[in-house]
Automatic annotation (TrEMBL):
Entries under Gene3D superfamilies matching the protein: Chitin binding domain
Lineage of source species: Eukaryota, Metazoa, Ecdysozoa, Arthropoda, Hexapoda
Protein name as it appears in the record: Chitin-binding type-2 domain-containing protein
Species annotation: Rhamnusium bicolor
Domain (Chitin-binding type-2): residue spans on this chain: 30-88, 98-156, 161-227
Record-linked SMART domains: ChtBD2
SUPFAM superfamilies: Invertebrate chitin-binding proteins
Keyword Oxidoreductase: no
InterPro entries: Chitin-bd_dom (IPR002557), Chitin-bd_dom_sf (IPR036508), Chitin_bind-dev_reg (IPR051940)
Length: 249
C-alpha cells in the first residue's frame, strides 16, 4: 500500500484570494497581447502578461511561486516550482527571505540527512512545521513524504536506526523474496529490506511482529513482548479466588 503523503495546504480559496490581492502589478507596458484575453509568459519565470480586452498588464508572482502557462483559465497562475517548466525563462525576482523562510512561499525540508521527517510550508514568509508519518521522509523533489530510501537527501539507515544485514534479500523460485526484521527497539515495529535498504512498518495498537510467522500478531502471542501496562496491572492485582470457586470455603 502507498505510504506517500501529499501536504493538504497547497492551495485553498483563502490563500488564492490573498495571492491575487498581493501580487505585485506593473503598470501597462509595451507588452503585446497575442489574443484579447489570456495570460502569457514574460521574460522571467515568475512574471507573466495578463491581457484583458487587448490591454496588456505585466504582473509578477509572489516570491517563491512561478508562472505556469499550463494553468487553466480558472486556476491561479502562480504555482510551486515543481509544477512549472522554466525552460528559456529561468530568471526570477530576488528572494524576499524572512527569519523563518528562504522565500515568501514554498515547501522546505527541515533537519539534515539523519533527521529527514519534518518540513515547513512558508506562507507570506511565515513557516508552518509539519511531521511526516512515522518512518517516512520529506522529499523536496515531489513535496511528498516518501520512503527514506527513495529520498536522495536522506540517510535511511541513520534516520531509521537500522541497517539491513548483508543477506537481507533472498531469491526464491522465480521471484525475489524480502526478509523481515523485528525492530530491536520495539517489537510492535518491524523493517522490510528492499534492495538492501530498510523501510519501517508499525503493527499497530495491541499487535506485535511475530518473527516466527513474519506477520503482525496479537501482542500476547509474541514471546518477550508483553505490554508493560499489562505486566504492571498483573503484579499490582491482589491474588484471590472467585466467589463461585469450588475451593472457596
Amino acid at each position: 500500500y502507498s505510504q506517500r503523503y501529499r501536504p493538504e495546504q497547497k492551495y485553498n480559496s483563502f490563500q488564492q484570494s490573498n495571492f491575487v490581492r498581493d501580487t505585485p502589478q506593473v503598470p501597462q507596458s509595451s507588452a503585446s497581447c497575442p489574443d484579447k484575453n489570456g495570460r502569457y509568459p514574460s521574460r522571467t519565470c515568475d512574471g507573466y502578461i495578463e491581457c484583458n480586452d487587448g490591454i496588456a498588464e505585466e504582473k509578477v508572482c509572489p516570491d517563491g511561486l512561478l508562472f505556469n502557462p499550463a494553468a487553466g483559465v480558472f486556476a491561479f497562475p502562480c504555482q510551486y516550482p515543481i509544477d512549472v517548466d522554466c525552460s528559456g525563462r529561468e530568471q526570477t525576482q530576488p528572494p524576499q527571505p524572512t527569519d523563518d523562510c528562504p522565500h515568501q512561499f514554498g515547501y522546505y525540508r527541515l533537519g539534515d540527512a539523519q533527521n529527514c521527517g519534518q518540513f515547513k510550508n512558508c506562507v507570506d514568509g511565515r513557516a508552518y512545521t509539519f511531521d511526516c508519518p512515522e518512518g517516512l521522509a520529506f522529499n523536496g523533489d515531489t513535496y511528498r513524504c516518501d520512503w527514506p530510501d527513495q529520498v536522495s537527501t536522506c540517510d535511511a539507515e541513520a534516520y531509521l536506526g537500522f541497517s539491513c544485514p548483508p543477506d537481507a534479500r533472498q531469491y526464491g523460485l522465480g521471484q525475489e523474496e524480502y526478509r523481515f526484521f523485528r525492530s530491536p527497539a520495539d517489537c510492535q515495529r518491524y523493517f522490510i529490506c528492499i534492495d538492501s535498504r530498510p523501510r519501517l512498518y508499525n503493527c499497530g495498537e495491541g499487535k506485535a511482529f511475530n518473527d516466527l510467522t513474519n506477520t503482525c500478531d496479537g501482542i500476547e502471542n509474541v514471546t518477550g513482548c508483553a505490554q508493560p501496562q499489562y505486566q504492571e496491572e498483573f503484579r499490582a492485582a491482589p491474588t484471590k479466588l472467585p466467589t463461585n470457586s469450588r475451593f472457596n470455603g
